[in-house]
Amino acid sequence: MERIGFxxxxxxxASMAANLARAGAPxxxxxRTAGRASALLELGAREAATPAxxxxxxxxxxxxxxxxxxxxxxxxxxxxxxxxxxxxxxxxDCSTISPAATRDFGSRLAERGVGMVxxxxxGGSEGARLGTLTIFVGGSDTDVARAxxxxxxxxxxxxxxxxxxxxxxxKAVNQVIIGxxxxxxxxxxxxxxxxxxxxxLLVEALAGGAAQSWVLANRSGPMIDDEYPLGFRxxxxxxxxxxxxxxxxxxxxxxxxxxxxxxxxxxLLEGGHGDExxxxxxxxxxxLSEPVTEPQAGQD
Length: 300
Description:
This protein is of the alpha/beta class. The chain has helices spanning 11-22, 38-42, 51-56, 68-76, 81-84, 99-110, 124-130, 141-154, 166-194, 199-206, 214-225, 234-251, 256-270, 281-289; strands spanning 4-7, 27-30, 46-47, 60-63, 90-93, 115-118, 121-122, 133-137, 155-160. The chain is 53% helix and 12% strand.
């Protein structure tokens, strides 16, 4: 495997980088916040002081950060990847960002002789840890073929969907569908509880029919318990829905379920729930289902 640089050691990135290290990749890592690389150093990785230093030591650089401005800063900011990447290097962006921005970044990198593949991932922290992520890939045939050994170390389902930016467009579709799935399960769980059903027996029954889904199997428990430990942050899904809704506007598509999910997520963000798992959508349904207390006569 070529020399790999990995930028971004958050919840997803740290596990993805660890899987690359375990696959035997010569690995250099960098993270904006210091102190996240210790476990990777134990696996044999080395830590760079800047993205430029990392790129200079790498043939392929994987980026996994939060949003479009973060990718731009890592690639083109002071001491960014583009400052250190040699002609012939390849950037694999596993972040979830704007398809249009992805194409712009690819053009800017191409002027320096550097290739780019967009490869946003799905599968949550569990998939990142287990190396079973689904990866939506955009880029030229040549660049994608070169990227594939890296992607195979971190994911299980890898689909090349066309030119650069198409991976991000596919991820936007994925996030729209996920939003609807979480919202549907949240509504069903709250309705079942309010109807007096045993929610655990209810989930068991639903799992045997057409309502079965990954969300039902893996996130109904937190919804029942009304506790939402981190799996995929609500704030990040809301960011992803924003990208999807921008794409929908550009393509003149109406997405009423995604718009509803976005509005409910905004309500939860205002309530301070952005760092909880997105199954916290069930809390919004619970809150909306609380009876409104009318003021007593004579009270203001």
